[in-house]
Please model this.
Amino acid sequence: MVFALFHESQPLSFFYFLGILSMKKTDYQLIIIGGGPAGLTAGLYAARGRLDVLLIEKGATGGQVLVTDWVDNYPGFYDGITGFELMDKMTAHADRFDLEKKFANVTGMDLQGEQKKISLESGEELTAQSVIISTGAKPRKLNIPGEEELSGQGVSYCATCDGPFYRDQEIAVVGGGNTAIQEALHLTKFASKVTVIHRRDTLRATAILQEKAFAEEKIEFIWDAQVSEVVGNDEGVESLNIQHNDGSTSNLPVTGFFILIGIAPNNEVLPLDQLESDEGGFVVTDHEMCTKLPGVFAAGDIRSKNSRQIINAAGEGATAELSAEHYLSNLGDSAE
Ligand code: NAP
Model:
């Protein structure tokens, strides 16, 4: 038929073939959702292994690390490296193996059955034999009065992004983990004083960060206390109301308030009724990154786990991809 068209109507055949060439590919062996360190590593492995793979990312590749000021513990980078630079290198590394990427918002998925279905905001429907979920996590909120109203006007969840706005000003950080202490140290480059408010009397952050923070004269601590309200007006933050664990209250004048109290999963588009998740909404997998659904894997900060490091995310991305390859090769065997 196509041959006949080619002979009988030259212009029609030209457009027919042009149409075929411009038809968008919608079916893959593997779709990776999320382009942080886990997704990029899975993508690198899959592209290098010549799988028919697509990575979908809603923003820029790199995830949370993009806004991490400094990464001092990623092996091989002896002098440390900025988060942005590290993720730029990871993206370039996956690109070297021609990883196909699509920048789009996933709005839904059906991961049951052999053919996994992914819906995009554009209305496009993609399908794959296997899926790696690496959608990561986002900063957790305090959910106190004034937080939402003053978000972007003095309340921030990203010291790297907003630190330079607070040159020579007095600011506060809430949290006692690695992020809070690392970013409090970063903020001393700009602010005249950084008060760290922590709900207990010991920090969760690693010893080396604690040592640095205790030695930094611009950092002061308020222990055993919680921020109960962010006070401000149209111009921005003015102060914080603080509730101390002994029942007393106080007010701390600051112009900037950084909330760095951990992370919440990016699980809004995941079919949580099909997957198993923990009480925090993180996806449960086994040690091979397999979820309870055949052909569906999860890696990185979206996983239910204790240690969240860039190196873990990258390692889990590699493991998830190898598990996906194993699953796909078994599918091939059963089809023969
Ligand atoms: P995190 O380790 O979970 O620490 C969260 C901190 O916020 C804890 O100190 C916690 O207090 C406090 N907190 C939680 N909810 C609170 C609330 N409602 N009010 C007041 N304080 C609250 O989170 P993270 O620091 O964001 O780190 C997340 C993961 O990334 C961790 O696994 C961390 O090790 C990793 N990370 C690694 C590096 C690095 O290796 N360089 C850097 C950054 C992050 P409690 O201590 O009382 O629970």
Observations:
- The CA atoms of residues 7 and 13 lie 8 Å apart.
- Residues 73, 142, 174-180, 182, 199-200, 204, 226, 261-263, 307-309 surround NAP (CB under 6 Å).
